Amino acid sequence: MKRVLGRSGIEVSALGLGCWAIGGPYAGGANQYGWGHVDDAESIRAIRRALDLGVTFFDTASSYGAGHSETVLGQALGGDRDQVVIATKWGWTFDEATREAGGADSSIAYLRSCLEGSLRRLGTDYVDLYQLHLGDLPVTEALEMIEPLEDLVAAGKIRAYGWSTDDPQRAEAFAAAGTHCTAIQYDMSVLADRPRIVACCEQAEQAGVNRGPLAMGLLSGKYADGRKVAADDVRSQGYEWLTYFHDGAAAPRWQARVEALREVFAAGGRTPTQGALAWLWARSQTTIPIPGFRDTAQVEQNAAALTFGPLSAREFAEVEDLLSDLRTS
Ligand SMILES: NC(=O)c1ccc[n+]([C@@H]2O[C@H](COP(=O)([O-])OP(=O)(O)OC[C@H]3O[C@@H](n4cnc5c(N)ncnc54)[C@H](OP(=O)(O)O)[C@@H]3O)[C@@H](O)[C@H]2O)c1
């Protein structure tokens, strides 16, 4: 199963891999931003397995693990780099040596210098999709980035660019202004439909790169038993934007829905995560989910969703009926 990356015409597998968790721990003061401990050798095995299974799209960010995610991804891809499409992001500062997270930097100088760091860590001389990581940046400031981004396209350092933002108005303005703007990355899962931004991507010929497609792991169903994630896992933190986890455990209000979804998905032979991915593919032709992963088994299960394809119209309608109380926005 393939998707075209917006108006760029670049073809990718309909499933990407999200490489935030494999960056390992990094923090700003007491605030943890990583997903706790990860084993780099296992991350590399998982990426190699994804390649075997036909995955050709990889999403990371300069700041994940303070550069470590890009380093691991670059090592894993090695000589296969030209066979895949790499998306990374700029905007958050960090100290690579101490693994400390810093603040936002929306300057043009940082846009350029951050790219040089990404190229070095990824071991490549171009990035396929370069994404602005500051989702709430004022539109006027974002639009100032278009000219330098177009210069980087002309110089062959990036092939296309996009914005990671959940705001349809920001997405619309950026896509309209940028000739090589080809993707909007936004949070969407079966538990959180985003009709306005989906419509924006469809109308503006943008790929909709879906982050959080598994609701940060909740949709796997494995947190139903009340288990907690590690204290240095981002899901243990008190961030107000954490919808699905509170104090490191799955928020109870979602459990009945996750259980009901499991039954619908199982009827089609899918695991809960495979069903969650299939819902996204059925939602729009523009969607490209990028589930995060910790190990090879998760990658294998998620990549196997490609063989089932999107939910059928009947399965999709069943899910919408089941979640009608959530479908108000
Ligand atoms: N601002 C931004 O631009 C932004 C923000 C967030 C994310 N992203 C991108 O989007 C990607 C995906 O989002 P996300 O990582 O936040 O959340 P997600 O994809 O919804 O959830 C990923 C987590 O679910 C668990 N999981 C994955 N496959 C599984 C399986 N088959 N069975 C059981 N558990 C499974 C793993 O964690 P556990 O095993 O630990 O539960 C994994 O780390 C990120 O990696 C990143 O590339 C971007």
In brief, what are we looking at here?
It contains 11 helices and 16 strands. It is of the alpha/beta class and 329 residues long.
Number of distinct beta strands: 16
Strand content: 15-25%
Number of helices: 11
Report low-confidence residues grouped into runs of 5 or more: none
Identify the overall geometry: globular
Main sheet strand line-up: 3-6-7-10-11-12-13-16
- Give the helices and strands as they follow along the chain: EEEEEHEHEEEHEHHEHEHEEEHHEHH
The hetero molecules present are:
NADP nicotinamide-adenine-dinucleotide phosphate
Structure classification: alpha/beta
- Cα radius of gyration in angstroms: 19 Å
> What is the chains' assembly state?
single chain
Main sheet makeup: 8 strands, parallel
Work out the helicity level: 25-40%
Instruction: For the record, give the distance between the C-alpha atoms at the N and C termini, rounded to a whole number.
Output: 30 Å
Question: Overall mean pLDDT score?
Answer: 97
Descriptive keywords:
329 residues, alpha/beta, globular, binds NADP nicotinamide-adenine-dinucleotide phosphate
Q: What this model shows, in words?
A:
With 329 residues, this protein is an alpha/beta fold. The chain has helices at 40-52, 68-77, 108-122, 139-143, 146-154, 168-177, 195-203, 255-267, 272-283, 296-308, 313-322; strands at 2-5, 10-13, 16-18, 27-28, 31-32, 57-59, 85-90, 92-95, 100-104, 127-132, 158-164, 181-187, 207-211, 245-246, 249-250, 287-289. Strands 3-6-7-10-11-12-13-16 form an 8-stranded parallel beta sheet. A hairpin with a 4-residue loop joins β1 and β2. It is globular. The two termini are 30 Å apart. Residues 18-21, 35, 59, 89, 133, 135, 164, 185, 211-217, 220, 222, 273, 290-294, 298, 301-302 line the site of NADP nicotinamide-adenine-dinucleotide phosphate.
